[in-house]
Specification:
The chain has about 220 residues and is α/β, with parallel strands linked by helices. The protein folds into 2 domains: about 150 residues, Rossmann fold, CATH 3.40.50.1000; about 60 residues, DNA polymerase, domain 1 (Orthogonal Bundle). A 6-stranded parallel β-sheet has the order 5-4-1-6-7-8, with helices on both faces. It has a two-stranded antiparallel ribbon with strand order 2-3. Helix 6 links the parallel strand 4 and strand 5.
Length: about 220
Amino acid sequence: MSASPGASATRAVLFDLDGTLLDSVPLILDSFRHTFERHGIARPDTARLMYGLGIPLRSYFGEWVTEPDRIEAMIATYREFNLAHHDEAVSAFPGAADMVRAVRAGGRRTAIVTSKNRAATERGLRCIGLLDAIDAIVSCDDVTRPKPDREPVDKAVAQLDVEAGTALFVGDSLHDLASGRAAGVRTAAALWGPFDRAHLESGAPDYWLEQPRDLLALLNDRR
């Protein structure tokens, strides 16, 4: 965890969902594999599948097919498989739910900024008992330019009624870090997710968090 003067002045914390709070990456990868197989597309390697983490399905599948109806069919296949296995396959990362509740109990506002649709986002939060601990949700349904564009973070900051400079975005992917940096919020890389420091280094996060409790230590640092 990097030290940071002024972190205790943070008024709002934005969180990515998958790979940051929700341990759902194995399910996502299985959903991708099922979809490619069902639609007769050669299964990409794991690195290519991992690239799809954190971006909307429409953007991801659009890299393999161009016809809108085929993209929609792939999205439908993905969601059918994902939802059928969702509740038994996902869980909160150890310490993540307590972290979010502690952030909110400390008087800070909370938001989810995700490339999932709203229904799936709320379902995931409900599964880990955090739906009532989130003040705002910005999903792919709420934007025209998803992460890594700044629009999702801008919308979350506006909904929380805070200045960008007083907000911190915690995420596990380069898409999260790019979106937050473009919007002028500080960024923290969650290293308990699927990507390691070497992968995230180019995103130049303001802070590195090895485990969820590091966020609380950062926010309470009054040095």
